[in-house]
Amino acid sequence: MNHPHFYPVGTSGEPWGETEIEQWRSRQSRLRRYDRDVVPRIEALADRFEKVAYGELDYAGEHYTLFALRDRDFDAALPTALVTGGVHGYETSGVLGALSFLETCATEYAGKLNLLTAPCVSPWAYERINRWNYDAIDPNRNFRIDGPAREATALIELVGSVQTPFLVHVDLHETTDSDANEFGPARAARDGKDYETEVIPNGFYLVDDCENSQPEFQKSIIAAVEQVTHIAPADAKGEIIGSTVIAHGVIEYPLRTLALCPTITGARYTTTTEVYPDSARTTPEECVLAQVTAVRAALDFALRYP
Fold first, then answer.
1. Into how many domains does the chain fold?
2. Which of 7, 39, 267, 268 could form an S-S bond across to 166 if both were Cys, CB 3.0 to 4.6 Å?
3. Chain centre to alpha carbon of residue 176
4. Residue 11 domain-assigned (yes or no)
């Protein structure tokens, strides 16, 4: 169902200009701190991993260094894996899941694969608990080398600097109630469109690439995560967020067409996790554990079937 414009920025039917973007920015408040929440955990991991400063952001005088952690010695004979969190900064368990994986499980893969992790791709949005960056741009629709989101282009440059080919990329996300009551309406207003009601799925699901479908890979992740949290069922149309459910808890997108993050490595195995943190059936700790479990299941499968 389409609804007429109701977001409190902009004029119905008219895309935003700089004036409206400034109005939108004025509504954003710093609610948490990247330098206090995320960076100290990255620093603490620097005794085990090489800390890489792979980009700089400066938004109206607020400065952010983009950090990744990588194995100190990349072995050309081993497969390489990328784990990304916080592409959408408001998706908390993605950031915390990437960090928790490094802190608790990553050593299990030493000597088995080369690991590169970017735990918080969008720190400005992390602090505002928002989907977009400072310029009201969604990084996860702009993973192009010439794209407008520095969060995305910096990560592309980091991946391009890696000399070994990637086998697997796990991109950690959430689908939240705020997608329906804030970010969906904001996107429609920004683009001068009516808002189409979204039904938020109740549970964990995965997004596969319809141009590089890996059904057994996705199935293995769902089976592991199902031991931690509930899997989202299909709606009455057999869909999750408007896409046909192709397997239990799995939908597909044309990732390259949409310029989504998992396209940047060319890996054989890619997945986007989607945790539902607003469910009464889960907890923040369980959401983080679901992300860690998904990463482990993905890496384990990729190592078994390289």
1. 1
2. 267
3. 13
4. no
Other C-beta atoms closer than 10 Å to the C-beta of 31 total 11
Q: Indicate whether 137 belongs to any domain.
A: yes
Cβ atoms within 10 Å of 290's Cβ, excluding its own? 28
For residue 5, the model assigns a pLDDT of 56
Which residues 6+ apart lie within 8 Å of 205 measured at CB?
Answer: 175, 231, 232, 240, 249, 250, 251, 274
pLDDT digits (tens, 9 = 90+) for 105-146: 999 999 999 999 999 999 999 999 999 999 999 999 999 999
Nearest to 30 by CA among 130, 131, 138, 175: 130
Is the residue at 180 inside a domain?
Answer: no
Run of H or E including 56? strand 50-59
Average pLDDT, stretch 180-209? 94
First-to-last C-alpha distance (Å) of the chain: 44
Residue 54: domain span: 30-174+204-304
CATH value at residue 40 = 3.40.630.10
- Which residues are 69's β-sheet partners? 51, 117
**Assigned token pair, 52:** 């890489």
Residue 25: inside a domain:
no
Q: Which residue has the tokens 């990463």?
A: 295
Give the model's pLDDT for residue 2: 55
